[in-house]
Structures are given as C-alpha cells and as structure tokens.
Amino acid sequence: MTTRSPEAPGTPGARAADEPVLSVRGLSVRFRMRTGGDIAAVTDVTFDVRPGECLALIGESGCGKSVLASALLGLLPANARTVGQALLAGPEGGLGDGLDLLAAAERTLARTVRGRRIGLVPQSPAAHLTPVRTVRSQLHETLRELTGVRKAGTGKVGTGKVGTGKVGTGMAGLREPGFRKPGLRKTRLREAGEAAAARAAFPADHLDRHPHELSGGLAQRAATALALVGDAPLLLADEPTTGLDRDLVDRTADELRRHADSGHALLMITHDLAAAERIADRVAVMYAGRIVEIADATTFFGTRGPRHPYARGLLDALPERAFTPIPGMPPELGDLPPGCAFAARCPKATGACGAVPSPVDGVACHHPEEDPTCSN
Ligand SMILES: Nc1ncnc2c1ncn2[C@@H]1O[C@H](COP(=O)(O)OP(=O)(O)OP(=O)(O)O)[C@@H](O)[C@H]1O
Ligand code: NI
C-alpha cells in the first residue's frame, strides 16, 4: 500500500482526492449593448468545486457573481456571449463523461441539468417561485419528480435518476414499497414536504400560502427548501441569506453546511462575509468580473488573512474589524482599464499594474501580501 501526500496543501485530504463536481476554465461573459460596445461582466474565471466542499464567491455589488451563476445554468439573455469551459461531472461522478455547460443545448440544460444536476437558490426568489401555486404544492411537485412518481395511481416509484442517489432528509420513505399505496403516499409526501420546509426554517403554518403572500425572507426560505429537496450534486446559492435575521442567517448557513457535508458541492454567492466564514471551505474573491484571489477559508479569515489588497480591503471594511471602507468605486464594466482593474483604488499600485496580473498561487496581483508558506 502506498500513501500519497495531498497535492494541494491546505485542502482537506479526503476532499482533495475527489474529482470536482464542477470545473470552470477561462470563463468570460460579454454583453453586447445596442448602443455599441461590450460589458465585460465576467473575465477569465477559473475554479473547481468538489463534492462535500463549500466555495464562497464574494465581492462588491455588480462585480459579476450572479452573471457567473446564470452562465453556468444557461440562463443568460440573448445578448450575452460566453467563452471558456464549465465541465459538470457526469452521473457517475467524473469529469471524463462530464457535460460542458457552456456548450450544452438548452434542451439538455432544461431537462437534465437545472434542478436535477444543479440546484439553484436564486437571488430574487419571489420571481422564481410559481406564483399560482402554494409553497406546499411546489415542494410536493419537486419531491414527486425526484422519486419518479408522476401522478396518483401510476405506482411508479424510485425510477427517477436524479442527483447522486444520496437522498436528502425525509425522502427515504418515498422510495419504500408501501409508498405505492395512494393514501400512504399522500401522508409521506406531506411529511417529506414539511421536513424539507423545516430544513430551510420555513414555518409549516405558511406552507399553504402563495408566493405573493410571503415576505422576502420567507420567499428566500421557500426557495432554499425547494433547492435542497432537489438533491442535485451541485447547489448554486445566490445570496441565500439576504433578508434574513441574524439567527436565521446562521440556521440557513448551518443547513447549507450540512448539505455540503452530506457530499454535495456548494457554490455560495454572498455579500455576507460572516456567513461565508461560518460555512466556506474556500473563498473566491471577485473584482470587476475577475477572480482576484482564491484561498482556504481558515487562512483567509484567520490571522494571516487574504493576500490580495482588494480582499484585505473587503475584510478591513467590516464593522467588527477596522471599519475602514475601500476608497473609490469599482470601474465600469463597459469601460475597464487595460491593466489591473483595482489599481486605481490600490495603496500598493505601481507602474507594473498597467498590465493584467496572472494568478500565482491563487492570487492575481503584482504586489500580494507575502505568503509565509512559500519558500520562493
Ligand atoms: N442582461 C444584461 N445586460 C447587460 N449588462 C448586464 C446584464 N445583466 C447583468 N449585467 C451587468 O453585469 C454586471 C454584473 O452583474 P451581476 O448581477 O452579476 O453582479 P453581482 O456581483 O451579482 O451583484 P450583486 O451583488 O448586486 O447581486 C453588472 O454591471 C450588470 O449591470
Ligand atoms: Ni448578484
């Protein structure tokens, strides 16, 4: 027996051995504007997410986080152009039979990817819930699809090949033989729906409401419950804690963490650095469409801190830290400077910053903080 040391220091060994669920290489998104010119919403983004891992994507409003998520799901508007590759692991869990999300047909994305292989907690949940149906009925529909039971009396159970086969809380009963009996199925479905709601801290006594009868925070929790119950191997959660009180933020974050711990990959987009610190394994920092730093979360939030000046500035702006905002504003994505987009706001900028910095050890900066673990 041979023991191999993990190739990536700082990555938990068991996870490093797993192939990514999602592998993004050189992804760029441009919006062509009618007035002429392009908006460079996402530029040359590269990252992986592995099973059991939570990657938090952070950065100021308008830096391209949601556009990145939309690109992965094939949900960009017609004036968008993408380049690069985004491989989603195949049903057997490997990238060998993976699907390039950027090249896939809309039909494939609609039938086999959205909701099945990639779950989404959308940034505007109210707009994504079906307006004419109660939360309970939307949960039941998702649960039925997942277990292959199309309509009452078909007796088809457990035929659906959805997700990893690792079934979320409350689902197991739906696959038992007794579930063929319509009465029992109804009871189990109800129980599973309520269990799913509880996971996202959605109150059971609001399940029979329609989306327009929900506050923003409740719509958020309904969308999270729906996304979790889909049991997809990859979950994209776009600001899943917006509009929630602090204790609900913590409960939602903890539930998402448990979801990752049960083997799912989680890409969490968030403004909430406390939530990111609570659950992320790694942090990716985006600025003006580019990922400027990817780091281990413990290092990033710990005493060593981030290495990119923008990432350091984000943390220093927090009230519980230095409470010092980063001076200036991010550049217009339709009019980016030729070199480092952060240079105009950066205390360390020099003439070298007139060129775009290439990432070295996860940091794209000409003047990063020293990494004491590097010998060179
Ligand atoms: N359909 C579109 N056409 C043109 N520009 C767009 C379109 N959708 C988004 N953008 C632009 O792309 C940029 C990135 O937007 P995005 O929504 O990804 O930001 P974000 O990082 O998610 O911000 P927030 O934190 O506020 O949600 C913005 O400048 C936005 O105006
Ligand atoms: Ni967004």
Automatic annotation (TrEMBL):
Principal subcellular localisation of the protein: membrane
Domain of life: Bacteria
Bias (Gly residues): 155-171
Enzyme class: translocase
Chain segments carrying region Disordered: 154-181
Pfam families: ABC_tran (PF00005), oligo_HPY (PF08352)
Topological type in the membrane: Peripheral membrane protein
EC number from the UniProt entry: 7.2.2.11
InterPro entries: AAA+_ATPase, ABC_Ni/Peptide_Import, ABC_transporter-like_ATP-bd, Oligopep_ABC_C, P-loop_NTPase
Gene3D superfamilies tied to this protein: P-loop containing nucleotide triphosphate hydrolases
Domain (ABC transporter) ranges: 24-313
Keyword list, A-Z: ATP-binding, Cell membrane, Ion transport, Membrane, Nickel, Nickel transport, Nucleotide-binding, Translocase, Transport
Gene Ontology molecular function terms on file: ATP binding
SMART domains: AAA
Reactions the enzyme catalyzes: Ni(2+)(out) + ATP + H2O = Ni(2+)(in) + ADP + phosphate + H(+)
Subcellular localization, as worded in the UniProt entry: Cell membrane
Assembly and binders: The complex is composed of two ATP-binding proteins (NikD and NikE), two transmembrane proteins (NikB and NikC) and a solute-binding protein (NikA).
Family, per entry: Belongs to the ABC transporter superfamily.
Protein name: Nickel import system ATP-binding protein NikD
Organism classification: Bacteria, Bacillati, Actinomycetota, Actinomycetes, Kitasatosporales
